[in-house]
Specification:
The chain is of the alpha/beta class. It has nine helices and ten strands. The chain has one domain: Nonribosomal peptide synthetase, condensation domain (Chloramphenicol Acetyltransferase), CATH 3.30.559. About 35% of the residues lie in helices and about 20% in strands. The protein has a six-stranded mixed β-sheet with strand order 3-9-8-6-4-5. A four-stranded mixed β-sheet has the order 7-1-2-10, covered by helices on one side. α4 packs across α5 and α5 packs across α9. The longest helix is centred in the C-terminal third of the chain and has 19 residues.
Length: about 350
């Protein structure tokens, strides 16, 4: 039997039956001019890693092999259940009490905003994350979460983020452009620090929660598109996250055959988002410079200016946690919101 992308099936069902976009926004951000022309690819066609490879290979970057999971196989339900008992996770309702929500149209989404840190500040971020016992991604996302809690959430109740996990090389799929990303849920509060995020990430991975998610999200192989639509409709009524946090790693991938970089622009991308996952964020390190990208769904965000304000607050929170070494600032803090969105 030919391989099928059952995660793509879910994105097709959401778009065709509920009008929910699965467009991943990407573009080349120029830190000097602050300009970017946004393009899209459909998540049904590739996840983040596969999509970046599709962009870079025509430019001469081999991107091979693509980043792999450090696991070697997909565990059974029995193994997953056993791991879950060994590493129990904190529980709270998957609800978010937003300060304000807005009416919206599925085809009227805001554009992302970008901050690019220079090489010096990138090195400082990585070093400070290490001091705190966390990855650079968890350090940066914990800062975003505190900004979101302060500015957008109405109370101090715990809330959840979704963090994608690469399962390439372990999930048994050969087509490198099929979706091969699962994910874990992280329960946090407005005060959670990078060390809290790191501890929860490690525990969720040890509990094999990403493999439970992987099996559940591909349930369409058994129940078909009609059954999948029914399951999605029911689950979307009861499951609400602050959003998703995607660490897409270091690019371009190391390869002696990489061509010279043509200019100082950086490649950025960020996921689609829905009213149930209204905040989409990503981290990419491009040629030694860390970028953070933020996209907020109109369900909780009235305009583009709010996203610009939020990404700048995110940047300031990150910088505020770094030990002072110089007055050198980040390169160009935000993108041009009027840039074109092209398919």
């Amino acid at each position: 039997m030919a391989e099928q992308d059952y995660i793509a099936q879910l994105f097709h069902v959401r778009r065709e039956r509920y009008g929910i976009s699965d467009d991943i926004c990407w573009g080349w951000f120029d830190p000097e001019t602050q300009n970017i022309e946004w393009n899209t690819w459909r998540h049904a066609d590739a996840d983040g890693i596969g999509g970046l490879a599709k962009i870079l290979r025509p430019l001469g970057f081999p991107c091979s092999p693509l980043p792999q999971s450090n696991e070697t196989y997909e565990p059974s339900w029995r193994e997953i259940i056993k791991a879950g008992k060994q590493y129990p996770l904190p529980k709270a309702p998957k609800k978010v009490h937003w300060k304000r929500t807005y009416d919206f149209q599925h085809d009227q989404l805001h554009l992302p905003e970008v901050v690019c840190f220079n090489e010096e500040d990138t090195a400082r971020i990585v070093a400070q994350a290490s001091v705190m016992g966390a990855s650079a991604g968890n350090f940066v996302f914990a800062a975003l979460s505190r900004v979101v809690a302060e500015q957008l959430i109405a109370d101090d109740a715990p809330f959840h983020w979704f963090m994608p996990v690469n399962v390439r090389g372990a999930c048994g799929i050969n087509n490198e452009f099929f979706n091969q990303a699962s994910g874990i849920n992280l329960m946090v509060t407005g005060a959670s620090q990078a060390s809290d995020w790191q501890a929860q990430t490690r525990r969720a991975l040890n509990a094999k929660r990403h493999w439970a998610t992987w099996k559940l999200v591909r349930i369409g192989r058994y129940i078909g598109s009609t059954g999948l639509s029914w399951v999605y409709r029911l689950s979307s009524r009861s499951t609400h996250f602050a959003g998703s946090c995607s660490n897409l790693g270091r690019w371009p991938l190391t390869d002696v055959n990489n061509p010279p970089l043509p200019d100082r622009r950086v490649l950025v991308a960020v996921g689609p988002g829905t009213a149930n996952y209204p905040i989409n964020s990503s981290v990419i390190e491009w040629d030694g410079r860390l970028t953070i990208t933020l996209k907020i769904h109109p369900y909780i965000c009235p305009d583009q200016a709010t996203i610009r304000s939020m990404v700048n607050a995110w940047r300031d929170t990150i910088i505020g946690e770094l030990p002072p070494v110089s007055s050198k600032k980040t390169e160009n803090v935000e993108c041009n919101a009027t840039s074109a969105l092209t398919d």
